């Protein structure tokens, strides 16, 4: 899988500090972000692919869960929070279709059959395109003895998720930006076309002043595998116009307005550097130094940031400064295509 394998291989070139957790399958713990709002941190465990962050809002009809992670333990943390609060999961919102954000959808639906999934329809194009192609490519990794067994098991789990891909699709398609009533609570929902994917959703909750940004903000490095950098930049400009106090990124810790501005500047610089003739290692160094204050754990994030940034410079350069899965026709600004 290109997204996945890109990340895993890029990390393999760096010294990944193994997590000290006693139980490798221990579920992450939900942390309060604001009254009635929790974050379940995603992460990258040794030899495995990432889980995106989950944000949970308490709402009149139950819990509204934004993104559902990839691994079983991430889903377990969401279910545990629902049990602790004594509330059903009323709705899921997916920020985008990458597997580290949607793989938990079927499991949550099994536990709460009444829930409704809200997302852009970009996943339809992805299931026929990027994900189908990734599934074919996976065979090579599964038979490669250099790939650790834990990684291979991770890839097999992704293959099962893709095979059952219809179960990931939304019940409610988000087709434009606007206020949506989800789980009995209003959210300002934004649709950014041709950014991280062909259709990214991010949302702002006025009552808590929390913005949930999905992979528009992602540490230790931007996951550019399916990205249109111009659309991504335009989406971050729109984010800046919203009066949030706390922003939850797709990967990484909660951020202030100033920190999101720092990230935005770093992404601009990184994309420009990748499109210049500067050595790739210099672009990776500049990225890493620019975002270092945003890291949660510098010892772990610094080498990963460098390795990933290096990988993405090469990827962007091989495809004219964007992902080859970017379908925008006008240089990456917000086109209307939803087929990556
Ligand atoms: Zn992600």
How are the SSEs ordered, and which strands pair?
Blueprint: H1 2-12, E1 31-34, E2 37-40, E3 54-59, E4 62-66, H2 72-85, E5 89-93, H3 99-102, H4 105-111, E6 116-119, H5 122-128, H6 130-142, H7 149-163, E7 172-173, E8 178-182, E9 185-193, E10 199-205, E11 210-218, H8 229-240, E12 246-251, H9 257-274, H10 280-291, H11 298-318
The structure holds zinc ion (ZN).
Describe the structure.
The chain has 340 residues and is an alpha/beta fold. It has eleven helices and twelve strands. It has a seven-stranded mixed sheet, covered by helices on one side. The chain has a five-stranded mixed sheet with strand order 8-9-10-11-12. Helix 1 (2-12) crosses helix 11 (298-318), helix 8 (229-240) runs antiparallel to helix 9 and helix 10 crosses helix 11 (298-318). The radius of gyration is 18 Å and the shape is globular. The two termini are 15 Å apart. The structure holds zinc ion.
Percent helix among the residues? 25-40%
CATH-level-4 superfamily name: Ribonuclease Z/Hydroxyacylglutathione hydrolase-like
Order of helices and strands: HEEEEHEHHEHHHEEEEEHEHHH
What is the approximate shape? globular
How can the largest sheet be summarized?
7 strands, mixed
Query: Main sheet: which strands, in order across?
Result: 1-2-3-4-5-6-7
Task: List the ligand species.
Answer: zinc ion
Radius of gyration: 18 Å
Low-confidence stretches: 1-21, 331-340
Count of folded domains: 1
The number of helices is 11
CATH architecture: 4-Layer Sandwich
